[in-house]
Amino acid sequence: MKTTLVALLLLALFVASCEAVTRGAFKTCDQNSFCKRNRHYADQVAHLQSFSNPYEVTKVSIGKGEASVSIVKSVPKAKSVPLSLKLSVLASGGVRVTLDEPNRAKINNVVSSKRYDASHWAFNGEPAIDTSAQITDYEHTIEAIYGDKTKAVLNKKTLQLDVYRNDKLEVSVNKRHLLNMEHLRSESDNDKHLSSYEIADGMFKEEFGGHPDSKPKGPESVALDFEFPGYNHVYGIPEHADRLSLRSTRGRSEGDHTEPYRLYNVDILEYETDSPMPMYGAIPFLQARKPGSSAGVFWVNAADTYIDIQKEASHTDTHWISESGTLDFIVFVGKTPEDIVTQYGSITGFTTLPPISATAYHQCRWNYNTQDDVLEVHANFDKYDIPYDTIWLDVEYTQAKKYFTWNRDVFPDPGYMLGQLDKTCRKLTVIIDPHIKLEEGYKVYDALKQKGLYVKSNSGDAYEGDCWPGKSVWIDTTNPAAAEFWKSMHAKEPQGIAAEADNMFFWNDMNEPSVFNGPETSILRDTVHYGGYENRDVHNAFGMSMINATFAALTARNPAVRPFILTRSFFSGTQRTAAMWTGDNEASWEYLQIATPMVLTQNVAGMPFAGADVGGFFGNPAPELLTRWYQAGLFYPFFRAHAHIDTKRREPWLAEEEHIDYLRNAIRLRYQLLPSIYTAFRQASVSGAPILKPLFYVAPNNPDAYARDDSFFVGNTGLLVHPVVHEGATSVNMFIPDEEVYYDFHSSQLVHKKNDKGFELEYKANIDTIPILQRGGHIYARRDRIRRSSELMLMDPVTLVVNANSMWDAEGELYLDDGKGYGYKNGDFIHMKFNFDGQVLKASSLNPDPKSFDFVHKAIDIPIEKIIVNSPEMLTVGCTVRQAGRDWNPKYETKQIGATHQTIIHNPGLAVGLPWAMSFS
Ligand code: NOJ
Question: Which residues are in the Glycosyl hydrolase family 31 C-terminal domain (predicted)?
Answer without folding.
Answer: 688-779
